Amino acid sequence: MTDPQLISSPLGTRVSVRRHVVDNLRAALISGELRPGETYSAPSLAKKLGVSATPVREAMLDFSRDGMVEVVPNTGFKVTAVDERQLDEIAETRLLLEVPVMGAVAEACTGEVAAAVEALRPLAARLSEAAAAGDLVDYMEADTEFHTRFLALHGNREVVDYVRRLRSRSRLYGLQALADAGVLEETTSEHGKMIEIALERDRTAMEDLVRQHIGHVRGVWAQ
């Protein structure tokens, strides 16, 4: 079992212990400081973060539900390792689900749906700012919220939940790779295009853009 050298940010009066723990652990997962295939105990992580083991266990259990870690009974949590075949399968599954769903959202983009799409603009701006700053934690949070809210406009909650978990698993590998390759800002620009295409009610263009978006990311994973 590996003992990581987590960098603990100071606990402030306006930041809850829970948020402090979640943010630090998510950052460590995204950056690779908590390495895929390695197992970590809640007490050792808690010691590095300067907190009790309880909020660490709670946070890691949340991550396990998203497929980012696996629970190892009586030991701790193992960071999920994703191989090339799994990355291909994740990308293929996302294409099967997200392309038709996003196309349907674009086709139905009038009234309340159009208003909800317009409301995604601040998230698209937040993504651009996070990408420019290299803030991968904020980027992942905004990216997940953007896509799940967009998909939710279709009305199928099972699709939203499944895609969210798929995205979480692949982000352990893909997000840092995108940043390292210098194309994070480029892929971020596609979020604004999704909003514009949806408001134009162009189903074909939306489906093409979603294929491009997922394919672009998978291409970086392969590098």
Automatic annotation (TrEMBL):
InterPro entries: GntR_C, TF_FadR/GntR_C, Tscrpt_reg_HTH_GntR, WH-like_DNA-bd_sf, WH_DNA-bd_sf. It holds the Pfam family FCD. Residues 15-82 form the HTH gntR-type domain. It comes from the Bacteria. Keywords: DNA-binding, Transcription, Transcription regulation. SMART domains: FCD, HTH_GNTR. The keyword Membrane does not apply. GO terms for molecular function: DNA binding; DNA-binding transcription factor activity. This is GntR family transcriptional regulator. It comes from Kocuria coralli. The lineage of its organism: Bacteria, Bacillati, Actinomycetota, Actinomycetes, Micrococcales.
